[in-house]
């Protein structure tokens, strides 16, 4: 389960140019950036890239972004970036970066917050805001590789309009192939019976478990640190084995 | 390669030489952990010092609290790109733990173990000589749970994943044995000034 495959090791450390091929608006504060790297490097669902920007005087900044696309779709990495009002990089990506621009990337990185078909299911995925990024890759991968992995995604957002990938996720949900979506809207009313107009709490997690039907083999939680702390606290209260719960905190 | 349209923010000139390559200064205190914050209470907390499989000494919380305390002020650097300057920590230097146990380091390598099953390897040379401590206080207060309460390792001159949270013990090992992140593609040593983020760097 480690990523230290000798053959992929050295290569992913090298910075390489990646062209922004497409930019898509997801919500008011979130855009997807589709990057075509000079050399495709395979990633596993859940992993992230490092992005490096350089000013004319040589000043450099790096940030990490999870890859949201399906690992099987070789050639293009999709990053989903939330614009932070006072941030250095995310406003640049939102306001300045344009199709055709070149960024530097390296990776993929991350050897724990990853899911391979061989890991199996059922899976409970819990996303807060842009924390959907690596979980979307897992959702897309688990659907693409088929099989019978049951997946419940509990996605938290402020309002209905802040739900990232809303259409795609609803379509997958409706397809009924082992994937179910539940929304937790902290500032909006629920529109479907399985959704809730409140923050994620223990009863909502119990409802997600009931939907899954059996105990998840793995639970992935991703978002801001306060979100991940709150959710994992509830999971421990509910008796989850901490060894089956993997977290990715975007730092803040 | 300059990025079109990017000017960026600069750290203030007076602190610029304290920021390692690829890092940005933060005023906050971000949290990164592989799993849930473990629930460790002072009643069942202890710290074990081991030489290989052999237990050399174990301290419970009350015993640990009477060991000599040291306060340090250090800059810290997380592999996820943030650095935080002038952080103040109080705890027990590894030197003082070893002295209390009457142990001279028996091997050149050590593994720190944590209550959540996490581990990380650090050469003994980077733990002794006042370089590292088991910290119980940050900025004058007890550690917050998500920052490692009740106690965490502090090895501030290495990337911060080496400063294991929720530490349960220190084990001397014959060889340099990879810990949790070191088994998952991260650098075995982790010097921020040489940007040793990943194995192979
Ligand atoms: C492994 C990993 C994967 C990540 N994946 C993604 C991803 O897929 N999508 C994504 O959008 N981001 C992701 N991030 C976060 C990303 O790396 C940046 O931290 C983020 O884009 C902010 O960068 P910035 O330069 O705009 O802000 P900065 O200039 O770094 O931050 C400015 C200030 O904004 C505040 N701040 C920073 N981030 C947040 C936040 N999320 N919420 C509230 N306040 C904040 C902080 O107080 C900070 O001091 C990931 C981080 C990690 C470690």
Characterise this structure.
The complex is a heterodimer of chains A (252) and B (201). Chain A has two domains: 5-109, Translation factors (Elongation Factor Tu (Ef-tu), domain 3, Beta Barrel); 117-250, Rossmann fold (3-Layer(aba) Sandwich), CATH 3.40.50.80. Chain A is of the alpha/beta class. Chain A contains six helices and eleven strands. Chain B is mainly β and 201 residues long. Chain B is globular, with a radius of gyration of 17 Å. In chain B, strands 1, 4, 5, 8, 9 and 10 form a six-stranded mixed sheet that branches. Chain B has a five-stranded mixed sheet with strand order 3-2-11-6-7. Chain B is built from two helices and eleven strands, in the order βββαββαββββββ. In chain B, a hairpin with a 4-residue loop joins β4 (70-77) and β5 (82-93). Chain B has one domain (41-194): Alpha-Beta Complex (Sulfite Oxidase, Chain A, domain 2). The interface between A and B is large, with 48 and 40 residues. The structure holds flavin-adenine dinucleotide. Flavin-adenine dinucleotide sits between chains A (48, 63-66, 80-82, 84, 86-90, 130, 133, 224, 248, 250-252) and B (24, 26, 28, 80).
Strand and helix layout:
The complex is a heterodimer of chains A (252) and B (201).
Chain A: H1 6-9, E1 16-27, E2 30-37, E3 48-54, E4 60-66, E5 77-82, H2 90-95, E6 102-109, E7 123-128, H3 132-144, E8 151-157, H4 166-175, E9 179-185, H5 202-212, E10 218-223, H6 225-237, E11 245-249
Parallel strand pairs in A: 7-8, 7-10, 8-9, 10-11
Antiparallel strand pairs in A: 1-2, 1-6, 2-5, 3-4, 3-6
Chain B: E1 24-25, E2 46-51, E3 54-60, H1 61-65, E4 70-77, E5 82-93, H2 94-101, E6 109-114, E7 119-123, E8 133-138, E9 141-142, E10 152-154, E11 167-173
Parallel strand pairs in B: 1-5, 2-11
Antiparallel strand pairs in B: 2-3, 4-5, 5-8, 6-7, 6-11, 8-9, 8-10
Flavin-adenine dinucleotide sits between chains A (48, 63-66, 80-82, 84, 86-90, 130, 133, 224, 248, 250-252) and B (24, 26, 28, 80).
């Amino acid at each position: 389960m480690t990523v230290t495959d000798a053959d992929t090791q050295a290569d992913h450390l090298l910075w390489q140019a990646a062209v922004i091929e497409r930019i898509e608006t997801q919500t008011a504060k979130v855009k997807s950036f589709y990057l075509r790297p000079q050399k495709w490097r395979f990633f596993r669902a859940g992993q992230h890239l490092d992005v490096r920007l350089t000013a004319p005087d040589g000043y450099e900044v790096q940030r990490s972004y999870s890859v949201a696309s399906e690992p099987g779709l070789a050639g293009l990495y999709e990053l989903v970036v939330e614009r932070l009002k006072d941030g250095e990089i995310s406003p640049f990506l939102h306001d300045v970066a344009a199709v055709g621009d070149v960024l530097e990337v390296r990776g993929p990185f991350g050897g724990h917050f990853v899911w391979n078909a061989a890991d199996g299911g059922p899976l409970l995925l819990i996303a807060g805001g842009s924390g959907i990024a690596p979980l979307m890759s897992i959702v897309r991968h688990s659907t693409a590789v088929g099989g019978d992995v049951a997946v419940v995604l509990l996605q938290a957002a402020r309002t209905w309009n802040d739900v990232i990938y809303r259409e795609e996720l609803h379509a997958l949900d409706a397809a009924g192939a082992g994937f179910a979506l539940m929304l937790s809207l902290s500032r909006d009313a629920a529109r479907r019976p399985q959704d809730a107009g409140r923050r994620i709490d223990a009863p909502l997690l119990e409802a997600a478990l009931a939907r899954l039907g059996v105990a998840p083999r793995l639970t992935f939680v991703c978002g801001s640190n306060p979100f991940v702390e709150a959710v994992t606290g509830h999971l421990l209260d509910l008796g989850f084995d901490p060894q089956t719960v993997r977290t990715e905190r975007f730092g803040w | 390669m300059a990025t079109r349209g990017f000017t960026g923010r600069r750290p203030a000139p007076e602190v610029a030489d304290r920021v390692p390559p690829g890092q940005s200064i933060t005023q906050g205190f971000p949290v990164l952990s592989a799993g849930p914050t473990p629930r460790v209470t002072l009643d069942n907390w202890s710290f074990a010092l081991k030489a290989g499989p052999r237990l050399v000494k174990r301290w419970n919380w009350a015993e640990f609290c009477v060991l000599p305390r040291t306060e340090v002020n250090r800059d810290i650097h997380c592999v996820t790109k943030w650095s935080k300057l002038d952080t103040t920590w109080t705890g027990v230097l590894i030197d003082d733990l070893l002295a209390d146990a009457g142990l001279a380091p028996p091997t050149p390598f050590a593994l720190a173990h944590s209550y959540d099953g996490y581990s990380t390897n650090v050469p003994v040379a980077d733990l002794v000589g006042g370089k590292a401590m088991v910290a119980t206080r940050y900025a004058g207060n007890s550690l917050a749970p998500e920052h490692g309460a009740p106690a965490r390792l502090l090895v501030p001159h290495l990337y911060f994943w080496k400063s294991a949270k929720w530490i349960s013990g220190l084990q001397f090992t014959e060889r340099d044995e990879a810990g949790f992140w070191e088994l998952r593609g991260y650098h075995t040593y982790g010097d921020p000034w040489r940007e040793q983020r990943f194995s192979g760097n």
